[in-house]
């Protein structure tokens, strides 16, 4: 078998992983201990992120003709790739949070929803909460006024209805004057 035939399945596997991906982040993993690498892989796996260490030439071939080809210029030195198909900010968020403790871990660059981001921009993206957190905050904001209205109506009902309110006598006087 020729070397090209041996490498083709690896390139196809990477291409299959990045197909329909929302984001791809490149990482320099040099200097991580085995324990740190294992912990990082576990966090990424729990978030549904694919994490692989691949040769740069294999990634370049897999990226050809995709939005991720913009990452070619950042493929220097040992590289690992984090791929997310669902949550576009998950790889950047998890890796940035992990890099706070593991100083050896460095972001290189990433493509999120078709746009190339450098390290600083990825750090800013990492500050965005996950989609589930944003949806729960939105629902909480929408639910808050309704909950407050329900509490007020409940207090009125507990105090004997509209007749017991201070505004009710004033409204009755205005109605009798007409």
TrEMBL record:
GO terms for cellular component: large ribosomal subunit. It comes from the Bacteria. Keywords: Ribonucleoprotein, Ribosomal protein, RNA-binding, rRNA-binding. GO terms for molecular function: large ribosomal subunit rRNA binding; structural constituent of ribosome. GO terms for biological process: translation. Forms part of the ribosomal stalk, playing a central role in the interaction of the ribosome with GTP-bound translation factors. Belongs to the universal ribosomal protein uL10 family. PANTHER family: 39S RIBOSOMAL PROTEIN L10, MITOCHONDRIAL. This is Large ribosomal subunit protein uL10. It comes from Dorea formicigenerans.
């Amino acid at each position: 078998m020729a070397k090209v035939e041996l490498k083709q399945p690896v390139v196809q596997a990477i291409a299959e992983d990045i197909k329909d991906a929302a984001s791809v982040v490149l990482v320099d993993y040099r200097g991580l201990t085995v324990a740190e690498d294992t912990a990082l892989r576990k966090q990424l796996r729990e978030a549904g992120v694919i994490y692989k260490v691949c040769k740069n030439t294999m990634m370049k071939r897999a990226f050809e003709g995709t939005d991720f080809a913009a990452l070619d210029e950042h493929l220097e030195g040992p590289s690992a790739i984090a791929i997310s198909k669902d949550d576009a900010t998950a790889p950047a968020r998890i890796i940035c949070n992990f890099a706070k403790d593991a100083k050896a871990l460095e972001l290189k660059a990433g493509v999120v929803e078709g746009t190339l981001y450098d390290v600083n921009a990825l750090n800013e993206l990492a500050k965005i909460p996950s989609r589930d957190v944003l949806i729960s905050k939105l629902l909480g904001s929408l639910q808050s006024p309704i909950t407050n209205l329900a509490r007020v109506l409940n207090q009125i009902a507990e105090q004997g209805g509209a007749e017991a309110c201070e505004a009710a006598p004033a409204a009755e006087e205005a109605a009798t004057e007409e």
